[in-house]
Design goal:
alpha+beta, four-stranded antiparallel sheet, 21 strands
Length: 347
């Protein structure tokens, strides 16, 4: 105990030590902290100072470029939401609505140049025929129709020097005349973004539902998973979300979610919360931030309430209930231009 007390006392009242030029200088408390590598790593954990700190000296740059530190930094400070892409005006997606970027507020001043870069990004001459399909960590997946030709590409508004990555033609269904649903999904593992293509077919005679999943590897779509199950009725339209290695599929007016586990190639079902039927406009599925569950957002029209549930394990947890009257009044007070805007994706 005495040794520890003496050590603390010396730290609080350090002795003067001779410098190289023969003068004595008392160590300041700030230098005691900055010279401690363990404390330095904690200091550099703040996102607003990380980049600036790397320019101070080689020792700080070494700490900030250490892979372990970068992994810790990303876990503590996940990428923040810069803003939303919206289709403005009263037009719907396929009617040529203008694509606009609305930044989240408030944002630290350090992010102003990046927000300006995203807001000024051009997706091409055919912006009025462009549809945003997915957005994750600054990579924006788009679909563009030029006449009868449908193309897909990945834009990176934060890196304007990079050209758009063109996605190769999508695999086709093996049998024609059956109900077909397809979509492109994305997932991130170890900081690497991957794209998957889901192709679902329903055979009315046998009531078979078959899903094939392809992964884009080296510019080629490769088979990733395939599974077949029996369904009692025809699917009208599907809402799909990818969480970890599971694909969640919900059909309009259904009271359950179909889940495909790509690891086991098996299907399962999840009953929706009591009193909720899935609707393509009033209900939205989204992945949880830690990829351990799925969120369900549903609008109750009669009550004018927006309810948010989280499904983890085998249960639904009601996370929040929002009064739409109050939310709408707040939005109108903030910005009258949002009256007819349609929210679509988060950057």
């Amino acid at each position: 105990m005495e040794d520890a007390s003496e050590e603390i006392s010396q730290r609080l009242r350090p002795e003067k030590k001779p410098c190289a030029d023969g003068e004595s200088q008392q160590h300041l408390p700030a230098s005691m902290v900055l010279d401690d590598d363990n404390l330095l790593i904690e200091i550099l954990s703040f996102p607003t100072t990380l980049v600036c700190a790397t320019l101070v000296c080689k020792r700080w740059l070494c700490h900030a470029s250490d892979p372990k530190f970068l992994s810790l930094f990303r876990n503590r400070h996940p990428p923040r939401v810069l803003g939303f892409y919206i289709y403005g005006g009263s037009a719907w997606i396929w009617l040529g609505a203008p694509l606009l970027f609305v930044p989240m507020q408030p944002q630290p001043p350090e992010l102003a140049p990046f927000i300006s870069r995203v807001a000024s990004h051009s997706f091409g001459a055919d912006n009025d025929r462009l549809c945003i399909m997915d957005c994750r960590n600054g990579s924006v997946l788009t679909r563009c129709r030029r006449g009868t030709i449908l193309t897909h590409g990945v834009h990176r508004p934060l890196c304007p020097q990079r050209d758009m990555d063109v996605i190769p033609p999508l695999p086709r269904a093996q049998y024609h005349g059956q109900q077909i649903f397809n979509t492109i999904l994305s997932k991130e593992e170890g900081g690497v973004l991957s794209y998957l293509y889901m192709l679902a077919e329903f055979f009315s005679k046998t009531k078979s539902f078959r899903v094939r999943v392809y992964m884009l590897q080296g510019g080629v779509w490769c088979m990733h998973a395939s599974a077949t199950t029996q369904l009692p009725r025809l699917l009208t339209s599907l809402a799909v979300v990818l969480v970890d290695d599971k694909i969640y599929m919900a059909d309009t007016f259904s009271d359950e979610i179909i889940v495909l586990d790509m690891t086991t190639s098996g299907f399962s079902t999840i009953l929706l919360p009591q009193g909720v039927n899935f609707h393509c406009v009033r209900t939205i599925m989204s992945r949880a931030g830690d990829a351990s569950g799925v969120y369900l957002t549903h609008i109750h029209v009669k009550e004018l309430q927006l309810c948010i549930w989280l499904h983890k394990g085998d249960n639904w947890l009601l996370v929040d209930t929002i009064c739409l009257h109050q939310m709408w009044d707040n939005l109108m007070m903030l910005d009258q231009t949002l009256r007819m805007s349609i929210l679509v994706l988060i950057v």
